[in-house]
Every structure is written in structure tokens, then in C-alpha cells.
Write a structure and sequence with these properties.
heterodimer, A: about 500 residues, alpha/beta, eight-stranded mixed sheet, three-stranded mixed sheet, 11 strands, globular, B: mainly alpha, Histone, subunit A, 3 helices, flat
């Protein structure tokens, strides 16, 4: 008998269409796998009853030869997407038992296309973190392991861990500074953040609105293309949604890289970066060259300023977005002496340490007298970073770089300096600041046997080239390694 | 004022916490000031960048702000709006007294 959890999303959809198995069968197999993997803490809320009902409904459609792009596929949803009737926490205590009365556009698109939702996946609180250790619901454990338990990266740690552990066929995620690509790199999965505006932000709990973008985490590049095809699309309810026709992402995966110019940005390295990562990058260059791409060397001189600029822009926007959590209309309320005291105690109790820290930094950089020195300057630096990319596009069609400066690290590693944790996003944050599509593809194992990803960054609206180059890397790397299944009950 | 002249003190943290509507215990102020100064010192490197004549970036992808017809597209969902309220009564949110 086929182990249904070994299927790719592409394989599962083909099998469902061919009636090799039913959605209920593969859904039950994944529910069992989810239950067995409770130690990974990947889910905050499971919704198996609705998943079974959705699977049965999908089977009826499939039996008639109908059904959408994702018909009958058991998937997971990051708990940052509002889902009608299913508790949504954003990984925070402050939302309490908040149960949305509406559906985010992204998950609504996926339900339209036949998604079977297994539940809501764990994440860093309000997507603020790079290790999934800031969640109120506890850390997520990476299925990859060397002695100690390792983090899956963050903020989409639950999504990455669940896909790597094969407890769902794919998962939604979001990326504000690297939160799709860094966990994908840490878990040996594929993750793409599309161009800013491709996926509607409507109904996604906001962190930093000018940077937040949804995308999938999956096991293969083609699976990511399938999911993104469903998730993306114009939405009048998001004023930053791009009103352009969607390219055929699946077809783009087969385009190859022959004749493409791939830029190698010399600034994407840092002191203390393990030699494995440098070597993998060189290997990646060879792979793409052998596949027919032309390699060109480019410079993005403002790269080192991306992270500090991000740590002004993102907290500033977060401090504004998170002002809504006041305990009046939804979420938890802690009674104080008067209205202001109630606000202050509600927010101090409901927000975790990292979220409070970023709200304070954001409030400070936006406060009277400091706006020009911090926020305005950061937005100008951001324009410089975007210009660096525009200059690079004169010479090349896409960029190849490492995704992260390290592999996964142990859970509970002491973080004495918040800036050290922020450095995880050093290679990913540039694409958010410039709004560009970028993908992490698993490419090899390091000397400890942990997965490492390579990153492809493309022009705005040109996910097709990112998929083409990502698929070429995937093919050359032939990454087949899987974590040993130590967690099974 | 240049960012260089700043330095977050316990007093500043108190003010920022107040603006952020976050309750902070007195004995945490000094530690938070150190932490903020650490992050701000790292951010300080942005002062090196020549931004003379650069327009601040206001959106990630160049596009005009979309306009739509000024008509009601949603509403009349009072039950839904109140469904998650910590306290509600007779179709209203119930909040602490704010005017004496």
C-alpha cells in the first residue's frame, strides 16, 4: 500500500484525479501522521472533523470529474490567516479565543480550489522571530535533529516543520523579513515569497504591512507553483494587491535556465558563515552554469544596510498595526484602574517579550523629533536597496545567493543580544524591502547532516524566472534526504 | 535632531511605554533602556549611507493608489462584529468608563 504521506502535492492531486485513492483516505493518513507528530508542536489548533467533511465533499466532486486546483489535498494553514469559525491566534496570548467571522482571501481562494484544511500551524508571535521560539504556544521542533532538538526557523516554523515531517502536503506561510525562506532552508523544504502584492493581505493578521507577503512552503518547487497559483490573485479588498493576470507558475517550472543570466551578488556573505554554505553557493553556481545559464557577477552595495533599515521599518509599522489590540473589541482584557490602565495591563499581559520590544522600538522611531532621523532615513535607504536591484537587473535575470548564514540551531539557545537573532534574516530581508519574489530551494546537507537552502531572487512580477531557476537547482541538487522519523508515537 | 545625539534613558522608556500603552514595572526600565540602546546603536550605521536627494520609498511595487466607487460594499453584520467582544450588551461593546 502507498504511504500517502510520502506523496508530493503534485502526486497526490494526480492520484486523486485518476481515482487511485480518495481524499478521505489521504486525509485520514495525514490526520494520523499529525497525531503521531504532536511532539513537534507544529499545530496550534487542529480541525480534523472539518477536514474529514471537506475531504468527503471533495471526493464527491472528484467522482464526477469536477474539482479545483487543490481538490482534496490535505494542507496546513499558518495561524496568521483568519479562518471563519476556526480560532486564529497569531501565536499570541492577546487574541484569546478569537474566532474570525470571515475568511482571509488567500485561504478563501484555496477553499474555492478544494483545499482540505487540517488545522492552524504554529508560528512566532505575530510572525516576529526567526526560530519559532516567541510563540505563546511553545516552540516548534524541527524534524531534523542532531542530539538536541533544533528550531525549524521562523516565523513560519509550524508550516516548515509540518511539511518536512510529512504531516501535511503543503502549508501556507508568510514572509516579512524571511519568514518563509529561512524556515524552508532550516527544514529542507521549498518556500517562495512572491512579489509584494501577488497574494492579498486581506484577513492576514498584519505585522509590517509594506513587507508582509504570503506564500507556500512545500516539498518540491512544482508543489509551490501549484499552491501559489491558488493563493495569489488580485483582490480589491487589499489596496496594495496587484491587478495583473497571474502567469502559469507550473508551466514556468519546466522552462529551464538556458540563456538566462544569473547574477552572483558578492555581498551575500558574512563573517563567521560556515564554509559549507560558501561551498554550496559555489556548487549552485556550477549547477546553474551546467544547466545552461550564464553566470555574471554583480554588486548590491547597500546590502549590509538592509537589516538595520528593516529593524526601523518593520517595528514602526508593527507598533501602528498592533495598536488595535486594546482588549475592547476582541481578544483578552485585563481589568485595570481606569481605561488607560486597562489598555496597558491588557497589552503587557497579552504580548510576549519580543513583541513588546518591537512595539517600543517602533513607537520610539516614530515619536516626535526622531521620525526624520530614523523612519524617513530608513525609507530612503530602502530606496537605495531597491535601486541596487534595479541596477543588477540591467545585467542579469535573477540572483543566486545563500538563503541563510547558518543551518538550524538548538532550541533554547541563549539569546543575550536580540541583534544576534536578527542576523538570521540578513540574506532574505533585502527581497522584502524591495518587494521582490524570492525562493529557497533545499540543496544539500551540511557536515552535521542538516539541510541548507539556496535562494533565487527575481525581478518584480517575474516569479516565472524564479520558478524556472528554482526547478533547475532542484533538479541538479537532487536533494532526497529526509529527517529520520524519531517523533512517531 | 540627529539620531546620534539620542540615548534612551529609563525616563525615555517610561514615556515610550506610556505612548505604546504597555505597562512596565519600574524595576524593568533600566534594563529595557539598555536593550533599546543596543538595538539603536546597531541601527546607527544607517547614518553612513548617502541619501542626499533620495526619495523615501513608500511602496514596494510602483503602482497608483486604486480608487473605487464610493458605495457601501459591506456591513449590517452587527452580530459578527460583536461575536468576539470580551464584553457586549444590547448590541454594544462594553468598555471601562472613560469620562468621569
Amino acid at each position: 500500500m502507498t504511504d500517502f504521506t510520502n506523496l508530493t502535492l503534485e502526486g497526490a492531486l494526480a492520484g486523486l484525479k485518476a481515482k487511485d485513492f480518495t481524499s478521505l483516505e489521504i486525509t485520514e493518513a495525514h490526520i494520523k501522521a499529525c497525531e503521531d507528530a504532536s511532539e513537534l508542536n507544529a499545530f496550534i489548533t487542529t480541525d480534523y472533523d472539518n477536514a474529514r467533511a471537506a475531504a468527503k465533499a471533495s471526493d464527491e466532486k472528484l467522482a464526477k470529474g469536477d474539482g479545483g486546483l487543490l481538490e482534496g489535498a490535505p494542507l496546513g494553514v499558518k495561524d496568521l490567516f483568519c479562518t471563519e469559525g476556526v480560532r486564529t491566534t497569531a501565536g499570541s496570548k492577546i487574541l484569546g479565543d478569537f474566532t474570525p467571522q470571515y475568511e482571509s482571501t488567500v485561504t478563501s481562494n484555496m477553499k474555492r480550489d478544494g483545499m482540505v484544511m487540517l488545522g492552524k500551524l504554529n508560528l512566532d508571535e505575530f510572525a516576529m522571530g526567526s526560530a519559532n521560539e516567541t510563540s505563546y504556544f511553545g516552540p516548534v521542533i524541527n524534524p531534523w535533529k542532531v542530539d538536541d532538538n533544533l528550531v525549524p526557523g521562523g516565523s513560519s516554523g509550524g508550516s516548515a516543520s509540518a511539511v518536512a515531517a510529512r504531516i501535511c502536503l503543503g502549508a501556507t506561510a508568510t514572509d516579512t523579513g524571511g519568514s518563509i525562506r529561512q524556515p524552508a532552508s532550516f527544514t529542507g523544504t521549498v518556500g517562495i515569497k512572491p512579489t509584494y502584492g501577488r497574494c492579498s493581505r486581506w484577513g492576514v493578521v498584519a505585522f509590517a504591512s509594506s513587507l508582509d507577503q504570503a506564500g507556500p512552503i512545500t516539498r518540491t518547487v512544482k508543489d509551490s507553483a501549484i499552491m501559489l497559483q491558488s493563493m495569489a490573485g488580485y483582490d480589491p479588498k487589499d489596496s496594495t494587491s496587484i491587478n495583473e493576470a497571474l502567469p502559469d507558475f507550473m508551466a514556468a517550472c519546466d522552462k529551464g535556465v538556458k540563456g538566462l543570466k544569473i547574477g552572483i551578488p558578492k555581498e551575500y556573505t558574512m563573517d563567521g558563515m560556515p564554509s559549507d554554505i560558501e561551498e554550496l553557493w559555489q556548487q549552485g553556481i556550477k549547477w546553474l552554469e551546467e544547466a545552461g545559464a550564464e553566470i555574471v557577477h554583480v554588486s548590491l552595495p547597500h546590502t549590509k544596510y538592509a537589516l538595520p533599515a528593516y529593524y526601523i521599518v518593520a517595528p514602526a509599522e508593527a507598533s501602528s498595526n498592533l495598536a488595535r489590540y486594546d482588549g475592547m473589541r476582541y481578544g483578552n482584557r485585563v481589568a485595570g484602574e481606569d481605561l488607560n490602565d486597562t489598555y496597558e495591563r491588557t497589552r503587557a499581559d497579552g504580548f510576549g517579550k519580543e513583541v513588546r520590544r518591537r512595539i517600543m522600538i517602533g513607537t520610539y522611531v516614530l515619536s516626535a523629533g526622531y521620525y526624520d532621523a530614523y523612519y524617513l532615513r530608513a525609507q530612503k535607504v530602502r530606496a537605495r536597496i531597491a535601486q541596487d536591484f534595479k541596477n543588477a537587473w540591467e545585467k542579469c535575470d535573477a540572483l543566486l545567493a545563500p538563503t541563510c548564514p547558518s543551518a538550524a540551531f538548538p532550541v533554547g539557545r541563549p539569546v543575550n543580544d536580540p541583534v544576534q537573532m536578527y542576523l538570521n534574516d540578513i540574506f532574505t530581508v533585502t527581497a522584502n524591502l524591495a518587494g521582490l519574489p524570492a525562493m529557497s530551494v533545499p540543496a544539500s546537507l551540511d557536515k552535521d547532516g542538516l539541510p541548507l537552502g539556496l535562494q533565487i531572487i527575481g525581478r518584480a512580477l517575474d516569479e516565472e524566472t524564479v520558478f524556472a531557476a528554482g526547478a533547475a537547482l532542484e533538479k541538479a541538487a537532487d536533494f532526497k534526504a529526509e529527517p529520520e522519523k524519531w517523533w512517531s508515537a | 535632531m540627529s539620531a546620534k545625539e539620542t540615548g534612551v534613558t529609563a525616563e525615555t522608556v517610561k514615556k515610550i511605554a506610556r505612548l505604546s500603552r504597555l505597562h512596565v514595572e519600574e524595576d524593568r526600565l533600566a534594563h529595557l533602556a539598555d536593550e533599546m540602546n543596543g538595538i539603536l546603536a546597531w541601527i546607527e550605521q544607517l547614518q553612513e549611507v548617502d541619501v542626499e536627494g533620495v526619495e523615501p520609498m513608500t511602496s514596494a511595487v510602483e503602482m497608483a493608489a486604486p480608487l473605487r466607487e464610493d458605495k457601501i460594499t459591506d456591513g449590517a453584520v452587527r452580530e459578527k462584529v460583536l461575536a468576539n467582544a470580551p464584553k457586549s450588551e444590547a448590541g454594544y461593546f462594553v468598555v471601562p468608563r472613560s469620562v468621569e
